[in-house]
């Protein structure tokens, strides 16, 4: 099971997450309490292994600004967490994650509208588009088979429920931010426990 730790703001957390087994790190460039500037993100990213996904998170940003931030920071994947149209999502030269808020099974059909590398399924938006610490009803995924799509499960995951989420959704990757924080800051112990739980939970084999 692959794991993405989102909301990275310092090199210590980044390296500790990777040492614990993280496959991807998220850097938030949209309005958020976890927002980071491109230059600081770049300083962190330049110290990371080449095979790690370095994901930049954007909400309804212009293509020009996204490309500029990607150039400055060195991110190698773009996460679009707003109301970006289909054509916009397929206009980049590096991989794209399209985030979709899920409140019912009908929301899952929106995946058919997009051509992108990954889909991140998140809770309905709160104050911010993500990182609100609330799960959606995973049972809506029970009868769905995403054989041709790489699904990233997000929204309200933590070390205590990530195994349940993996078994319910059978995703390609799990994504966590607030679920590995203590008093609003990344907790290295929680990150380690989250990754250990996720990695030890077997995905169901598709028959």
Summarize the structure.
With 207 residues, the protein is α/β, with parallel strands linked by helices.
- The gyration radius over C-alpha positions equals 16 Å
Terminal Cα separation, in Å?
A: 18 Å
CATH topology: TIM Barrel
User: What is the CATH class?
Assistant: Alpha Beta
Number of helices: 6
Q: How many structural domains are formed by the residues? A: 1
Shape assignment = globular
- What is the count of β-strands? 10
How much strand?
15-25%
What's the helix-strand series?
Answer: EHEHEHEHEEEHEEEH
Describe this structure as you would to a colleague.
This protein has 207 residues and is α/β, with parallel strands linked by helices. The chain has a single domain, classed as Aldolase class I (TIM Barrel, Alpha-Beta Barrel). The protein is 26% helix and 20% strand. It has helices spanning 11-20, 38-45, 63-73, 86-89, 162-169, 188-199; strands spanning 2-6, 24-28, 53-58, 77-80, 96-101, 118-122, 151-153, 173-176, 181-182, 185-186. The protein has an 8-stranded parallel beta barrel with strand order 1-2-3-4-5-6-7-8, surrounded by 4 helices. Strand 1, helix 1 and strand 2 (24-28) form a beta-alpha-beta unit. The two termini are 18 Å apart. The mean pLDDT is 90.
């Amino acid at each position: 099971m692959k794991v993405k730790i989102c909301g990275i703001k310092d090199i210590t957390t980044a390296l500790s997450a990777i040492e614990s087994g993280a496959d991807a790190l998220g850097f938030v460039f949209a309005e958020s309490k976890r927002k980071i500037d491109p230059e600081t993100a770049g300083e962190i990213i330049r110290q990371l292994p080449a095979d790690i996904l370095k994901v930049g998170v954007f909400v309804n940003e212009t293509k020009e600004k996204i490309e500029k931030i990607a150039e400055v920071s060195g991110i190698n994947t773009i996460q679009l967490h707003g109301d970006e149209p289909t054509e916009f999502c397929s206009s980049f030269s590096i991989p794209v994650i399209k985030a979709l808020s899920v409140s019912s099974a009908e929301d899952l059909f929106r995946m058919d509208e997009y051509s992108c590398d990954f889909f991140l399924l998140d809770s309905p938006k709160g104050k911010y588009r993500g990182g609100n610490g609330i799960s959606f009803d995973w049972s809506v995924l029970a009868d769905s088979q995403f054989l041709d799509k790489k699904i990233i499960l997000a929204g309200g995951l933590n070390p205590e429920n990530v195994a349940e989420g993996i078994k319910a959704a059978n995703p390609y990757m799990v994504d966590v931010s607030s679920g590995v924080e203590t008093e609003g800051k990344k907790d290295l112990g929680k990150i380690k426990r989250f990754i250990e739980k996720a990695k030890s939970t077997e995905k169901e084999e598709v028959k």
